[in-house]
Structures are given as structure tokens and as C-alpha cells.
Amino acid sequence: MGYWLVKTEPESYSWSQLVSDGTAHWDGVRNYEARNHLRSMSKGDRVLVYHSVSDRCVVGVAEVTRAAYPDPTAQKGDWSAVDLRPKGALLRPVTLQQIRLADALSGIALVARSRLSVMPLSAEHFEHIIALGGGVQRLPRR
DNA sequence: GCCAACGTTGGC
DNA sequence: GCCAACGTTGGC
Predict the structure, then answer these.
(1) pLDDT tens by residue, A79-93
(2) Could you tell me the pTM of the whole model?
(3) CA A8 to chain centre
(4) Regions in chain A scoring below 50 on pLDDT
(5) How many Å from the CA of A127 to C1' of C3?
């Protein structure tokens, strides 16, 4: 099982929008390193969703429901998208500041590579962030 | 191939 | 709103 973190600006696409949509095409990524991470995702992988800019916290957990396919929003160039489905919200959002301060999370790409929008996580970092958030409130089946 | 200019991201 | 970081573009 792979673990990942994706960023989104809540003003353009928020966790609550993902929850109400039920699923989303995670497209529009236009950075080669981030794209390559998308291509390394497998169906069933777990994904933390982070709100950048105005919110600056990890808010929820999603699951990859479709591995990488050509990004339909790309007019030109070789870009990829995946599909995500929300699994549940963290009981308490975990702030960037908390992540910076946590010794167990030192070296995490979210801090070390602040402009990367799709990044891998170790299982330990994934679980640690969820623990900081007090666990996951699973969404009801829909 | 180098590098200056430029655009974007994202923290503060 | 500002600005640092950094990726991309394009002239040479």
C-alpha cells in the first residue's frame, strides 16, 4: 500500500467539495515531479489531503480509485490524472505548524519541498499525522 | 548549454 | 500583500 499527500487550494477545490462530489478527477498537475508521483499511485493507496495557502492543514484522507490516466484537461503535453474518493476527515485538522514541530515528521517533503504538490509519504509519517489529528471520522457509505 | 527574465506557488 | 523559492522559457 502506498501513501501520498496532495495539496489543494481550498479556494479552488476544497475537501468539503470533494466530500460532496463523492469522487474527483485529480487533474491539472503541471509539474513533472508531481506528475511522476501521480503515475506511481496504485488503486487503493491512501492519500492525505492538504489545504494550502489560506488554511495550511491536513484535513482528510482519500483513496485512489483509479490509477494514472491521461489528464483530460491538458491541451498539450504529457500529463496525468488519478481519481480520488474521500474516506474521512481528520477529527482535528493537523496544521503545518504542528507538522513542522513534530520530531517524528522531520524531513517530510511537505516542509522540505514546500512547492511540490503531490508527494510520497512513509507509512510512519502517514499514521503519525492521522494520530496528531485524533484519528479519522469515516464518511458514511454513499 | 548558459543564464536572465519571467511566472507561479505558497508561507508569512 | 509581500516576497522567497523555484520551475520554465527563450535569447544568445
Answers:
(1) 999 999 999 999 999
(2) 0.94
(3) 8
(4) none
(5) 34
